[in-house]
Amino acid sequence: MNIFTGLDEIVQIKYPLAKCTWYGLGGPADYFIRPKNTKQLKEVVKRCNENKIPIYVLGFGSNLLISDEGLRAAVIKLEVEEFAQMQFDGEELTAWAGAELAKLVLTCVQNGLSGIEALTGIPGSVGGAVRMNAGGNFGDIGAAVESVTLMDSQGSIFEKSKPELMFDYRSTNITAKFILNARMQLASADPEQIMRTVKEIWIYKKNNQPLNSKNSGCIFKNSRGVSAGALIDRADLKGLQIGGAVVSEKHANFIIAQKGCKSHDVMRLIEAITQRVKEKFNIELELEIEVWK
Question: What phi, psi does 13 have (nearest 5°)?
Answer without folding.
Answer: -100, 145
